[in-house]
Amino acid sequence: MTFTFASAICHKPAIGVPFQKISMLLVEHHHTNLCSKIIRSLASWQRKCRVGTCITGQQLNELHTNSAHVGPTGPTTSPSSSKQKKGLVYVSTSADTFANLAFEDWVHDNWDLSHLNLLFLWRNEPSIVIGRHQNPWTECSIREMRKTNVKLARRRSGGGTVYHDLGNVNCTFFTHRKSYDRQHNLQTVVDGMNEEWPQLDISTNSRDDLMLNNFYKISGSAARLSRTVAYHHCTLLHSANTRMLTSLLNFNADGVKSNATESVRSPVLNLREAEPRLSQEDVFQAIATEFYANNPPYYKDKEIYAISPNDEHIWKGIAQKKEELMDWDWIYGKTPKFQVEKKYREVSATIHVNKGRIDGVILYMPYDWVHSVLVQQLTSALKGVRFWITDVAMVIDTFLNDVEVDDDVRDRLETLRCLIEDCVSGHEDLTRTGGSNNSGQLQLNQLP
Q1: Which of 118, 187, 296, 430 is deepest in the core (most CB within 10 A)?
Q2: For residues 53 and 303, is the Cβ–Cβ distance under 8 A?
Q3: Is the per-residue pLDDT at 275 higher than 50?
Q4: Chain segment 123-146, per-residue pLDDT in tens
Q5: Exposed, middle or buried: residue 300 (CB in 10 Å: 0-12, 13-18, 19+)?
Q6: What is the pLDDT of residues 11-24, one digit of tens each?
Q7: Nearest to 175 by CA among 220, 221, 119
Q8: Does residue 34 surpass a pLDDT of 70?
């Protein structure tokens, strides 16, 4: 049996040597007393560390082969004669946003949670995670995200947009659909934190947000419900980069009209700012302790088991789920219909977008400013193109390179190009792929 610590989670040096291997080596050399001492010492440290304890190979095998334990489709029989559901707590060893979201979907799609409640604790690398029915072009600054290498992900639950980084603690409560209780889950977090850190005044509001001192928002909340399984997840701002959060989410989407679900902006504060002694391990342990108080442990000990959501051998098919979440057509293509309008003097452009692609472009300009045939050719070329500046610029460049017109008309077409690209580049980087005019927005000032 192998047993190691995940140093990325518990911030302690990894032992890196299996317990069994140490035992065998010492026993072979007749150091049985020393063996017992080392094992007791490591076990003692394990209990002190708690967070970051890796689930053992034997236990993982039990999860998937023993019908009395959690199999690939969840527990097939009750682990005990008691009718009370058992509890299990996992913590992710990965900070990969898409891997952690994929794990949520994997459990949702594969486990029968009739006899088990699962708490999943995880953290992500810097990323923006939008709700299933949201518009990324109105929720966040895609331009700034690309500059700072912050990823964008769309989750399968509803709700609003949240900023994630390693200072953000995430909790997902998995239950059977009949047992779903969002308020109970939030109260688990509130009670666990208030029990260990009573000086922190943490509570819930009418929007199911977690609040600090009844003013600062420290957590958002969203859920995904199906016929038999439900999961509810929330965030906790522990030591997140709030400056980055503000720069990426406090975004004015000028000229965009959308019916997508909009996020509600609120003042935020890190828990660490209110209580400098509070570590992330403290948060994990407080929530897990309260969870186990309501759900007797599935295994003997009230442990937090570290798992890798990238392990295809254990979670069959999870790699495919991750790929689906990373696909452009999911992140951007699932955006509800919207339109963008830009105007300069007597010329304006309206772009209709459906499933992340241009559904139509309407250009308004003075009569005979540009021949209607050219306008029709340009707008037809853009139909079906991804609403992405590199794609749009490439199509317009091709059109301008192929068309034969005099200099005056070409200048006016260049102005239309800049107006159209401004509809897109206002929401991401303006990266040209060619063309005769590279003056960008300045071209609009040359309108006759």
Answers
A1: 118
A2: yes
A3: yes
A4: 999 999 999 999 999 999 988 998
A5: exposed
A6: 332 323 333 333 33
A7: 119
A8: no
Tokens (6 digits) for 35: 């063996």
Distance CA 236, CA 165 (A): 11
Q: Which of 254, 258, 204 is nearest to 232 (CA)?
A: 204
Residue with the two structure tokens 């309407």:
362
Give the span between the Cα atoms of 225 and 208, in whole angstroms: 16
Q: Who contacts 114 (Cβ-Cβ below 8 Å, separation ≥6)?
A: 74, 75, 176
CA dist., res. 75 & res. 115, Å (int): 7
Q: Which bin fits 214, alpha (ψ -120 to 50), beta or left (φ > 0)?
A: left
Specify the range with the lowest mean pLDDT, choosing from 208-212, 250-254, 277-281, 397-401.
Answer: 250-254
Question: What are the tokens at 92?
Answer: 């992710």
Cβ pair 221, 158 in contact under 8 A: no
Least confident of 20-24, 109-113, 264-268: 20-24
Neighbours of 381 (CB within 10 A): 16
Global pTM exceeds 0.85? no
Structure tokens at 134: 């949201």
**CB-based burial, 382-408: b 16+ in 10 Å, e otherwise:** beebbbbbebbbbbbbebbeeeeeeee
**Starting from the edge strand earliest in sequence, which strands make up the sheet with 86-92, in order?**
53-54, 304-307, 86-92, 116-122, 168-176, 229-237, 221-225
List C-alpha distances in Å: 71 to 173, 316, 441.
18, 12, 58
Determine the pLDDT at residue 71.
44
pLDDT in tens, 378-429: 999 999 999 999 999 999 999 999 999 999 999 999 999 999 999 987 644 4
DSSP notation for 277-334: T--HHHHHHHHHHHHHHHS-BSSSS--EEEE-TT-TTTSTTHHHHHHHHH-HHHHTTT
Q: Look at residues 303, 324, 268 and name the one whose alpha carbon lies nearest to residue 98.
A: 324
